[in-house]
Design brief:
single chain; alpha+beta; Jelly Rolls; Arc Repressor Mutant, subunit A; six-stranded antiparallel sheet
Length: 316
Amino acid sequence: MKLATSHPVDKILRRAHYTLHYHSTPARTDARRSGSLNQSFQWTNHATQTHRVMFLLEGEWTWQIGTTKDEDAPRIFSIASGASVASGTAHAGDALLLASGVTASTDASPHTDHHAYLLLELKAQVLLDAAVRAKLIRGETALDFPRAHVHDDAALAHIAKSFTRELIAGEAGIELITDALVEQLLVHLLRRHTIFRRSDDLELSRVGLVDRRIRRAIELMHAHLDRDLSVEELATAAYLSPFHFARLFKKITGTSPHAYLANLRIIAAQDLLATTDFPVTRIAGQVGFATSSHFAKAFRTATGFTPREYRRLVIK
């Protein structure tokens, strides 16, 4: 199911533990008329405790794991951290599974007329909790997706179509349906596409499963999004020197403490935009931005939308 339109279409559903984002570009003949043929869509995010599943609904896509492409490429999203390098071509019905912290870039092929995708952002703790409820694991265990590109899974394709129908229709009870579909997806991912890895460095904190060596620093970030936290203050919380803390944090998360904190602020802003009627200026202050213009620029860089555009696109 897709919307017949001459303009790009975005539908966003934001829930406590997951976010769904449907995006569709117009067919090439319509895109020429609307002037959007060469529009570039970007999704940038630094490593956080979030898994991503990208369902490819229409068109052909090239993907790359483990490194980012040229900055001028029409990138859909880029997630900063380390992973082994792999690349390939994906088609409608395929899915890309990106575990928390994986570096990836995806480009829409110019050889197909219409492109559409559905992006599910899932808090890593939700998948972990599902594994515990399913009695697959106990204790501090890391979960990973050994195969990034899935092209032969009819169940995943069916779930993607069900998600898409609900987002496009936007009818009453959508949250009940998508919550149930997420539960179904969690079990399927755990059964077919997940490996389990015990780690003595992981521990469960009030902000989720984190590396115990930087747990206090990450908790400090979550507790004080409205403050400018220096590397020295974060290092003190982790009982490390600033030099060793910065190196260790980069090694564990794949990004700098400053970039990690900036991304946490954007995530918090998305929640506030979706769940409150607070003015944008108030939200900017709550998540640590000195001015609304600085906030709007950072938000658009991270999500591809201005704060007001994002709020308008969220399904209420």
